[in-house]
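<purpose> Linking amino acid order to shape
<body> The protein record starts here
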Amino acid sequence: MKFPVTFFISIWISSLIGQNNSKPNILWITCEDISPYLGAYGYDIQTPNIDRLAKEGVRYKKAYTTAGVCAPSRSAMITGMYQTSIGTQHMRTIGDPRFQPVPSYSAVIPDYVKCFPEYLRKAGYFCTNNEKQDYQFIAPVTVWDENGPAASFRHRPDHKPFFSVFNFGITHESQLFSRTDSLLIDPEHVTVPPIYPDTKTVRHDIARLLTNIENMDRQVGELLNMLVQDGLYDHTIIFFFSDHGGALPWMKREILERGTHIPFIIRYPHAEHAGETNNDLVSAVDFAPSALSLAGVSIPKHMQGQSFLGSQKSVKPRKYVFAARDRMDTEYDRVRMVRDQEYRYIFNYMPDKPNYQNIEYRLGIPMMKDILFMRDHQKLDSNQMHWFRTKPVEELYNVDQDPYELNNLASNPRYQSKLNELRTVFKQWTLQYGDLGSMTEKAMIRKMWNGTDAPPITADAMIDHLSNGLKLTCTTKGASIGYRIKSTYEKPVTQTVQSWDMGFAFGRKNGINQTISPSWNVYQGENIQLNKGDTLIVKSMRIGYTESIVKYIDGKTIIPER
């Protein structure tokens, strides 16, 4: 009998926890805005460090994000929930007013939904994020032990397992027009996809993207060397993935293959399952429950993603993955996608709108000038002009045979059975999870704010002084409570740390002095003990609500003015 890779992984994790009475370290290496343009995926590019992870780990060939852009996608990753079901679907909610038609808002998500690292912290994990969040809401202090440019697993207490995230931004769309370092790729040797005109500028931008990927690989190598130096490389489960697909025009923001298909590699301790490939469909909404499963933490029943790893692995692999596109900066659209192993189905709620959106931020990419000039002078071919045409209500593509999805099969009688299948799946998905894209964004915000013009305020935490310590409560349903104990005798701790530059300069900055603040403890109902002279600081927050701060000094509760 042949067992799947995940069976042996589950046995291995159970053995590790059982023998050592410990939980596995987990490291997420996240890059931005790339499709699988890596040597490990057969691309002609020098990415030896990521290729090493693939040689020593499992390479997933069909991993997809729930959006073709960062903030909605990251929202799904951190919550295990589809962004369309919790009100985080518009790109973006907290941002520059020049690029959005509504005021900035922190999305009020359902009261039972948390950022999953909070569950890991409650289970004893030291959780760090270096450094991008961009979840469409302000994260409570209970999510991370450390969050910032110096956050690292290196600062954990000796006895704690860690979950650490490192985000590398050098491949971000913005780096196509802001970087001026030398190209590592010859523009004359790049392949120009049929969706672009073959111009000198287009070739340069493709070479810039590939150069940025090669530089990102070097950053990954530095991080892996840190693990080796610390003796952690063979004691850590390493994920590598992108937050969504490609950075180039008509890639990013789309829920086509080039906007949602991502590289995804897992390297297990001692190179278990080295060099294996996995062809199962995987969605990024599954990352949160899978991390919890690996850590031996119960997956909350509300999570919409399914675990594909660990002891709580789903019995059946996915048959379908889903994605959504809503407002992008100032431009509204509403598109939904279902993909199976071979076909992609798209439903356009606004078929009167063209595929192209005149997004100011994207206009900074040099090749956009060439594309728009050639459009205006009728020099684009029919494939390239497809971006500027209006959309049919339904689209169907055989992705294996038509990788750039230019041949819509929805009206072809030979494919009606597949069209009906994916249409039905799309409707079932919408009914099962809901879709807040059905209301206007302004109406959604007003509903989140209970019909008022400002976000709700988290109730102040109540501090009860009992004989055996202090107890904390908050009447706001779904609020997380974090606390710190500050001693009048303690001095600020300054450490020399290594800070990571995510894009504008390469590599690490060594020897930066930074004051390290103590972590906010996640309150779990324990009795809190204070010594004489201690101050208890409590922050309570439901996601999307205004945070509440309370202090307890010398037996008195103090509520600072907001």
Notes: The radius of gyration is 24 Å. The first strand starts at residue 25 and ends at 31.
